[in-house]
Amino acid sequence: MNRLFAVVLVTAAAFAAEGYHVLNKIEIGGTGGWDYVTADGANHRVYASHGTSVAIIDTDSGTVVGTVPDLHGVHGIAVASGLNKGFISNGQSNTVTVFDLTTFAKTAEVPTGQNPDAICFEPKTARVFTFNGRSNDSTAIDANTNAVVTTFPVGKKPEFCAAAGDGKLYANLEDTSELVEIDASKLAVTRTAKLDPCDGPSGLAIDAKDGVLFSVCGNRMMAVTDIRQMKVIATPEIGQGPDAAGYDPGTGIAFSSNGRDGTLTLVKLMDGKWQPVDTVPTEPGARTMTVDTKTHKVYLLTAEFGPAPQAKEGKRVRPPILPDTFHVLVVGR
Predict the structure, then answer these.
(1) Which pLDDT tens digit goes with each residue over 12-25?
(2) Cα three-residue angle 138-140-141, rounded to 5 degrees
(3) Quick one: CA torsion of 325, 299, 171, 164, rounded to 10 degrees?
(4) What sign does the CA torsion over 307, 313, 317, 320 have?
(5) Which residues contact 232 (CB under 8 A, 6 or more apart)?
(6) Distance between CA atoms of 133 and 135, rounded to whole angstroms?
(7) CA-CA 20 to 30 A from 332: which of 134, 142, 170, 251?
(8) Which letter does DSSP use for residue 318 in this model?
């Protein structure tokens, strides 16, 4: 066999070997947009933001089993399973809604900085951190008492966050294309690093065991950062319109959900190099996602869209979301 042809065959087999595809579609319906979605593997649930509510999905049955209603510009959901608490960031009211994971009842409303967006639970300190896009800071909340500990500056326009489990958190800064490290005990930024050549980082995921971060960027790349050095070590190509990132330690795969392309890019360490190993067709608009690390399934939010209205010169307009078409895509092997 021709040596070059054999190499091509081996490479193609490696790229096709992951076997991910759309397994199911969970209909939710209703109206309004969406933002973050969070997997809670311990309780076999997914929490999906949707307009003024959060839909709670049982991942075993694939059905909606509850809702947290009457929210105000919901963005993200963080889960503290050991405390039986969930935390929802409300961008319009500058608050966090606390809810019970068993009854889904709201139990508290906590003030934050302006436009809380990403939200993460840090297990070592038992603190919840919101990343406030308008005031460029983070609000730390005691997850046991629901009391605000403090609000501290982090840099321009923080986006997604990720907790390492060792008392450190990380967040992308979209406006400056930077990455910040936060000490959850000291409540301060300890290190800042440039993500060049990444432009406009949004989604962030972490491989805590090996000390690697994955930032998805607006210029069709995933910036892979070595935490020890706080240095970008790879920039594998992804699709257009990425918003969220995910990582599954059980498979060693990092994910980028690309809403404009309607694809999910899979990135893996192969022969010592982080590179794309598969592209899974999803649906247009499926830009946010979460990974259930217990089942190795990926959940993406999207809906059906009508035709886009006429755009003014130099402006980009989004097509309207069709009522009662909001749904969750389940991707797996």
Answers:
(1) 334 446 999 999 99
(2) 145
(3) 160
(4) negative
(5) 193, 194, 195, 196, 198, 223, 224, 225
(6) 6
(7) 170
(8) P
Residue 83 backbone zone (phi > 0: left; psi -120 to 50: alpha; other: beta):
alpha
Cis peptide before 197 (omega within 30 of 0): yes
The two three-digit tokens of residue 215, written as one number: 């930032």
Q: How far apart are CA 312 and CA 55, in angstroms?
A: 35
Q: Which residues lie closer than 8 Å to 186 by C-beta, 6 or more apart?
A: none
Distance CA 14, CA 204 (A): 26
Maximum pairwise Cα distance, the chain: 68
CA 293 – CA 182 distance, rounded (Å): 24
Distance of alpha carbon 17 from alpha carbon 43, whole angstroms = 30
Structure tokens at 142: 């005691």
**What are the backbone angles phi and psi of residue 43, rounded to the nearest 5°?**
-105, 5
Distance between CA atoms of residues 246 and 242, nearest Å: 12
Summarised one tens digit per residue, pLDDT across range 235-265 is 999 999 999 999 999 999 999 999 999 999 9
pLDDT at 237: 98
Query: At which residue do the structure tokens 């997914």 appear?
Result: 46
How far is residue 193's CA from residue 240's CA, in Å, rounded to a whole number?
A: 24
SS3 84: coil
Chain-centroid distance of CA 195 in Å reads 18
Give the CA distances from residue 215 to residues 52, 112, 178, 249, 285, in Å, rounded to whole numbers and listed in that order: 28, 25, 10, 16, 19
**320 Cβ partners below 8 Å, 6+ apart?**
305, 306, 308, 309
pTM for the predicted model, two decimal places: 0.93
Under a CB-based contact definition with an 8 Å cutoff, are residues 75 and 116 in contact? yes
Residue with tokens 């319009």: 92
